[in-house]
User: Which sequence fits this backbone?
């Protein structure tokens, strides 16, 4: 991008970042959550650039407004801010259902320490899907605290499948982890 446009983008992001609800900051090296690129300079390399970040905003010439992930010149602060806010929300939502390595190792450590799990609220429908096993596991966790192996025994599922389900519940923020070995059966009534 031309130096003038780079300064405009930097200024917009820095001024926007002073608002506590604006989650973006500028970085010079990977990993990138989003990239802003000049569409006239990368037309032949767009596929390569799209692999560098989960979100790519292409700055284009006039009359390209309305195309997804494009920003028409001249760069306008409100349009850039809106794209960043919308993209940030989409990225957070996507990460909510993804299990990062740190979470997997934390979950594995908890399982090794014989942790017990229960639901603090019913999981979102998008997480449950139409699987009778997911429904059964969620119902069991709603009624009492169970370890991963107890959950597997009661559902007739493998421990690894139960652990994946527990990780998804934890990512969704509906799983309570109890470190003690006591059963402490808490009685929940669904809905």
Assistant:
């Amino acid at each position: 991008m031309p130096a003038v446009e780079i300064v405009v983008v930097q200024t917009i992001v820095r001024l926007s970042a002073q608002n506590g609800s604006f989650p973006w900051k500028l970085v010079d090296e990977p990993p990138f959550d989003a990239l802003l690129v000049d569409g006239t300079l990368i037309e032949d390399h767009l596929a390569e650039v799209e692999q560098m970040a989960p979100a790519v905003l292409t700055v284009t010439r006039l009359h390209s407004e309305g195309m997804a992930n494009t920003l028409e010149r001249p760069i306008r602060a409100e349009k850039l801010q809106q794209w960043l806010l919308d993209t940030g929300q989409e990225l957070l939502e996507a990460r909510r259902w993804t299990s990062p390595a740190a979470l997997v190792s934390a979950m594995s450590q908890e399982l090794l320490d014989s942790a017990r799990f229960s639901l603090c609220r019913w999981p979102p429908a998008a997480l449950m899907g139409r699987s009778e096993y997911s429904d059964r596991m969620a119902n069991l966790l709603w009624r009492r605290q169970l370890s991963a192996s107890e959950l597997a025994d009661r559902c007739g599922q493998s421990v690894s499948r139960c652990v994946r389900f527990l990780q998804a519940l934890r990512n969704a923020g509906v799983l309570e982890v109890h470190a003690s070995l006591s059963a402490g059966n808490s009685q929940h009534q669904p809905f």
Residues 98-103, 181-191 have pLDDT under 50 and may be disordered. The beta strands are 34-38, 55-60, 70-72, 116-119, 175-178. Residues 119 and 175 are 5 Å apart (CA to CA). The two ends are 54 Å apart (CA to CA).
